[in-house]
Specification:
alpha+beta; NADH Oxidase; 4 strands; binds flavin mononucleotide
Amino acid sequence: MSILETIRNRRSIREFQARPIPEEAIANLIDALIWAPSAGNLQSRKFYFVFNKKIKEELARAANEQNFVAQAPLIVVGCSDDRIEQRYYERGKKLYSICDVAMSIQNLMLLASDLNLGTVPVGAFDEARVSKILNVPKNLHPILIVPVGYPAEKPEAPSRVSPAEALEIIL
Ligand SMILES: Cc1cc2nc3c(=O)[nH]c(=O)nc-3n(C[C@H](O)[C@H](O)[C@H](O)COP(=O)(O)O)c2cc1C
């Protein structure tokens, strides 16, 4: 598939099959995370890969009871790393490290889609609770929770704004 086709075909998936994800696909998803760009190439991010059923259920509860989160065989939790502050100060901490995580997660979601795996970025969760569940050190902050698994639904594409609404073109 072309990259644009992959981008257009990716959908947020909220129903998953129990079927496990092959090891090779997991290795490739990790590669996709790691090879995303990052501010100053500091890679101010860390990812938790959660396969444990009990911990997945706790994460789903911390994500406002979005129970589909625990249905997926794998949950990836992307965290920003405050240590970027040493080079990029407040802007690094408040913005760059979050962009770093988002870029990795987008890479992961696009590759997952290409491998016929479903994902959804979940931002609605209690950060302190997620940090506690995963025993996350103080310098890391959970930014997105991403369940990953084979889809059990095929949602219609939600609409997008027109290019005219999305852009200001400056000539
Ligand atoms: C930052 C962010 C946070 C999101 N949080 C949630 C969430 O908590 N729960 C959820 O079901 N979807 C969440 N989504 C997914 C969006 O609802 C979804 O991307 C949007 O409706 C467009 O659908 P599509 O991804 O299929 O194109 C989030 C997406 C982003 C980018």
